[in-house]
Amino acid sequence: MAISFTTEPASRLQKRLIVGLSVILCGLAISAGFNAAMPLAPVPAFLPAYAMAVIITDLLTAYLMASQYRILRRPSLLVLASAYLYSGLIVIPQMLVFPGVFSPTGMLGAGAQSAVWLWVMWHGGFPILVSLYLLADGYERPVERPTASPGLIGLMVAVSVALVLAATLAATIGHDRLPQLIVTNSYLSLANSLWGQGVLVANAIAFIAVLGLTRCRTVGQLGLAFAILASLVDAALTLAGGARFSLGWYVARMCTILASGSVLAVFIYEMTSLYACCLTLNSALERMAFVDALTGIANRRQFDQRLEAEWNRAYRDGRPLALILLDIDHFKRFNDRYGHPAGDECLRRVAWAINSCTRRPGDLAARYGGEEFAVILPNSDLPGAMAIAEKISQAVRAMGLKHENGTSAGIVTVSAGVASLRPSGVGATIAGLKSMADAALYDAKEHGRDRVEASTANAA
Question: How confident is the model at residue 307 (pLDDT cuts 50, 70, 90)?
């Protein structure tokens, strides 16, 4: 199964964090509840800012949920996306009809009950849709198919928009036919009505369902549980406040923002974590692609790319570029006598010795192939490269790795060929630099091995 927001297991730390935040939320709600009916001054800018925060977070969450459906191909996720899309869209007519926001009595032909009825449909519809998602998710099995159906996403959007339009028409055109829930800015009728109690029950059922059906096993379920808890606290404080612009009413609006933003916050956290994982995996893949698995130094692919890059840099700067080619003397005899595991260990130790002699940031030691190694030395003339090659030869000899079938020294040794070129010179090419170093290596082998030879082309 693809790893995503809705499938990533929740860690113990994440569970403790959500539990801690829930305890803080409940503590603040209880504290505010004692003075929920305390009247506060109306703040004209509060409602538009609050509405924009809810709209943006809910619509973003709906979009991300739909994206999860495209990844996991689980239609139940579209039910949850519709819950957030419905919640984000219904805020728009709720603000338009709210007295004092865009007009003294509200727009869209609103009556005195329009805003409160849209609140009931909003805070009652959201937990109902979440409960439907939980039921659908419990009976659903992942379906493997090449692509997600765009038609289902379109249907989800159409249903959400239709629900919002129906709620808006009922609260505006049909407001005279709806029961009276608010009297002279008092919510007491709402709090004591079946509709107000129904909002509380719907949120309580959704919260219990999240805990009971999901056990908060995934990060997404943790965020959803916190969102429903915030929605429940929001409804309770609104009813306890008894009127608009009371302490309970203001705190309830803050809880609405928490309810809409908690899942989005978890989304952002998980996407950041997954991005970090991708970077780690890409680094590991790059290491696998450019590092020799046996010796741990650069492989032939990295050598070829680096040599071309350093050649171009040397051409721009007008500086020399040196290349050392090395070969372990009589390595086939070593394998025949001591076995391939010992041969692998020999390669690793020789690679370590070569790499230990390349100290500058631009130097690169690489396994060229089989028992052959190469060293790229930017900004190095022939005497400087010869000194490094001699240092490598001595480092290999200093290991004292026994090789009775090798040279007369009786230990593992290397032969090295060294060449240096200025890329800006006439006829200078990368292939020419390789050929010069290879010819020097051939001379070292011909002259008895365990030695370093400079390219005769350099001397010429």
Answer: very high
Backbone angles phi, psi at 163, to 5 degrees: -65, -40
Residues whose CB is less than 8 angstroms from the CB of residue 133 and which lie 6 or more positions away in sequence, other chains included: 76, 77, 79, 80, 83
- pTM summary value: 0.68
* Residue 243: inside a domain: yes
Mean pLDDT estimate for the chain:
88
Q: How far apart are CA 49 and CA 55, in angstroms?
A: 10
Cα 202 from Cα 41, distance rounded (Å): 31
| Shared-domain flag, residues 263 and 236 | yes
Alpha helix (H) residue ranges in 318-453: 331-338, 340-356, 382-399, 430-446
Range of the domain at 336: 300-459
Residues annotated as part of the active site: 371
Assign 291 to helix, strand or coil: strand
- Verify that 59 and 105 share a domain, yes or no: yes
* Domain stops at, among 223, 258, 285: 285
pLDDT, one tens digit per residue, over 35-44 is: 888 888 888 8
Residue type at position 422: R
| Under 8 Å between Cβ of 373 and 350 | yes
